[in-house]
Amino acid sequence: MRADRQAGGHALQLVILSVLLLYGCGQERPDYPQRQMPQGMMEDGAQLAAGHALFSDKCASCHGKPSEGLSGRAAFFQPPAPDFSETHYRDSDPAYLFWRIEVGKTVEPYLSSGSVMPAWRGLTDREIWQLVAYLKTRAK
């Protein structure tokens, strides 16, 4: 009897895992333009410092840590705004990060998912690249 319950439990776990994998594979993947980060941007201390300053001014209230000026309203965001300290941001495609900063919530799948990220089209391409470079160095 116990073996039957264990087998049934394993079967249920397998079904749940399969459903989650199929759901994850079915998620809409954003299509974004390919761009090249300016050469040397990641190694240029002045560019990284400019990106940090932009992050502090424009992004920290939603994406920062409490010590960086995180606003109390950020606790209510669904989905939550990342602070970009996770490793996968270091490995993210710079063109994707550029595009995401540029368009914010104005495109799918973000528009219908409840994102509150503004489009930062008022920033210059250089400023967006500075932010991208800084975000990639911020990740652990």
Structure, described:
54% of the residues lie in helices and 0% in strands. It has 6 helices and no strands. It starts with a helix and ends with a helix. The longest helix is centred in the first third of the chain and has 24 residues. Helix 2 packs across helix 6 and helix 4 crosses helix 6. With 140 residues, the chain is mainly alpha-helical.
**Estimated share of beta-strand residues:** under 5%
The number of helices is 6
Total beta-strand segments? 0
What's the order of the H and E elements?
HHHHHH
Amino- and carboxy-terminal Cα gap? 48 Å
* Unreliable spans: 14-26
**Percentage of residues in helical conformation:** 40-55%
The helix/strand class is mainly alpha
Rg, Å, rounded:
19 Å
Mean pLDDT equals: 85
Q: What global shape is seen?
A: globular
Q: What is the assembly state of the chains in this entry?
A: single chain
Give a quick precis of the structure:
This protein has 140 residues and is mostly helical. The protein has 6 helices and no strands.
Map the helices and strands.
Blueprint: H1 2-25, H2 45-63, H3 87-90, H4 94-103, H5 110-113, H6 125-138
Helix pairs in contact: 2-6, 4-6
Task: Summarize this structure as a short list of keywords or feature phrases.
single chain, mainly alpha, 54% helix
